[in-house]
Specification:
Largest sheet of chain B: 6 strands, mixed
Mean pLDDT of chain B: 88
Structural class of chain B: mainly beta
Shape of chain A: globular
Oligomer: heterodimer
Helix content of chain A: under 10%
Mean pLDDT of chain A: 90
Number of helices of chain A: 0
Distance between the termini of chain B: 41 Å
Radius of gyration of chain A: 13 Å
Largest sheet of chain A: 7 strands, mixed
Distance between the termini of chain A: 36 Å
Chain lengths: 115, 111
C-alpha cells in the first residue's frame, strides 16, 4: 500500500545530542514537509521541499536541518541547538498540481522526548 | 501575517446530534481550505476540502461551509458517532504547497 512511513515512532534523547527522524513515502509525491506539534496546539511548519535537492525553511526552522537527496526520503535532524525539542513531529507529502492541489498526506508521527 | 484560528478549543455533543466546528481565517487571498481529523497519537487525516469559488461542499456525513465575506469556515458533522471524537483542524492554503493550520478543536461525543 502507498503511504508515508515515519520512524521511530517514539524516541528519547539526552540534552546536547542530535537525533534524526526518518520519513519515507512511496506515493511518488514531489513535495514533502515536516511539522511540529506541541500539546493542544496546531501544526507549525519546520521545513519543506518541493523537489529533490531543494528545500526551504518554514516558520520554525531554527535548530533543525533537513536533506532531500531522494524523492522518497526527507529526513529531519533535530540538533542540540533546538532549545525545546520535545514534541510530536509529523511528516507529510503532496503532489503539486494534483487534483486536490494543496492536500497533504501525513505519516503517523514521531514523538521525541528529551530527557 | 496570515493566521487561522478556531472559535472554541473544545466541543462536546451527544451521540447522534449534529456538530458544528468553526474556523476563522485572516488572509483574504487564501483560495483553498481543508479540514483534517486527528485522533490521539496519530497523524491528521483529510476529511474534506473546499475552494474559494464555492460556498458549500458536502461529503459523507460532513459539510463544509465557506463564508468569504466574514472569512469564516465551518465543518458540520451529521449524526455524530463515538468514532468522530478527535481534534479537528482547519487549514488554509494561500501559496503553492504551503498550508497554515489552526490550533484545533477537540470534539468529544457523549453517550
Amino acid at each position: 500500500d502507498g503511504g508515508i512511513t515515519q520512524s521511530p515512532k517514539y524516541l528519547f534523547r539526552k540534552e546536547g545530542q542530535n537525533v534524526t527522524l526518518s520519513c519515507e513515502q512511496n506515493l511518488n509525491h514531489d513535495a514533502m514537509y515536516w511539522y511540529r506539534q506541541d500539546p493542544g496546539q496546531g501544526l507549525r511548519l519546520i521545513y519543506y521541499s518541493q523537489i529533490v535537492n531543494d528545500f526551504q525553511k518554514g516558520d520554525i526552522a531554527e535548530g533543525y536541518s533537513v536533506s532531500r537527496e531522494k524523492k522518497e526520503s526527507f529526513p529531519l535532524t533535530v540538533t542540540s541547538a533546538q532549545k525545546n525539542p520535545t514534541a510530536f513531529y509529523l511528516c507529510a507529502s503532496s503532489h503539486p498540481g494534483g487534483p486536490k492541489n494543496g492536500e497533504l498526506f501525513f505519516g503517523e508521527g514521531s514523538r521525541l522526548t528529551v530527557l | 501575517g496570515e493566521s487561522v484560528g478556531l472559535h472554541l478549543p473544545t466541543l462536546s455533543v451527544q451521540e447522534g446530534d449534529n456538530s458544528i466546528i468553526n474556523c476563522a481565517y485572516s488572509n483574504s487571498a487564501s483560495d483553498y481550505f481543508i479540514w483534517y481529523k486527528q485522533e490521539s497519537g496519530k497523524g491528521p487525516q483529510f476529511i474534506i476540502d473546499i475552494r474559494s469559488n464555492m460556498d458549500k461542499r458536502q461529503g459523507q456525513r460532513v459539510t463544509v461551509l465557506l463564508n468569504k465575506t466574514v472569512k469564516h469556515l465551518s465543518l458540520q458533522i451529521a449524526a455524530t458517532q463515538p468514532g468522530d471524537s478527535a481534534v479537528y483542524f482547519c487549514a488554509e492554503n494561500d501559496a503553492v504547497q504551503k498550508l497554515v493550520f489552526g490550533q484545533g478543536t477537540r470534539l468529544t461525543i457523549n453517550p
